[in-house]
Amino acid sequence: MKMDMRTPYAKVTGKGAIGDGTSHFWRQRLTGLANVPLTLFLVWLVTQLAGADRTEMIGLVSNPIVAGLLVLTIVSVCWHMALGLAVVIEDYIHAEGLKIILIIGNNFFALAIAGLTIVAVLKLSFGG
Amino acid sequence: MKQSRRPLSPHLEIYHFSLTMALSIIHRITGVGLYFGTGLLAWWLIAAAAGPEPLALVHSMLGNWFGQLVLIGFTWALFHHMLGGLKHFIWDTGSGLEPEQRQMLSWINIVGGLILTGLTWLFLVWM
User: Chain B residues with CB inside 8 Å of A117's CB?
Assistant: First the structure.
């Protein structure tokens, strides 16, 4: 399957709100699909550990499968949410300068959440 | 792209408000709510990694009635948005687009979201 679904003309003209809609659509579906089992896992994990102390949290998260699934969940959720909010921004913000600032902010927020949370999960997983 | 001063064609003013229309904007609103809500999840995990005092702060902030209300709302937003997403997958294939089918999917979305939220809190949180 072609990784880039854009025609040469589309790439050159970059029409559309972000100039790159088709791959966005596909990645949104892909992460959305992955999110179904992953967020069910997340709901389970959160309800298991809600209110628990550090020792108990470290106990569960030190299981490599739990930690691995948690990392995958964070990646998929953050990617999906960044894609989603990008569409919201494109729909309502038409001033190019403000749109760019918000798109950057959107991506940075998603990356920050992902990066910081993954490191936290790894720290807990390796013993706290 | 400069902002044009030409008038927009009417949309919200003239379209008959429908169930699918309401669910569409609710899907977006729950999505945006979930987006910022991940901050809560991140806060909890980062606090746990940081130490017992930050974690205790999270417990006190989210453990009181208001925090629990926020979390119930977050749970509902999650399940409603997830079922909405599955509804969109069905529509992506081209099926379920007839009026009666759209209505049915919409009601399943609404009721399912409430049921899953209730079940989660009843059986996974409170019991």
Answer: 41-42, 45-46
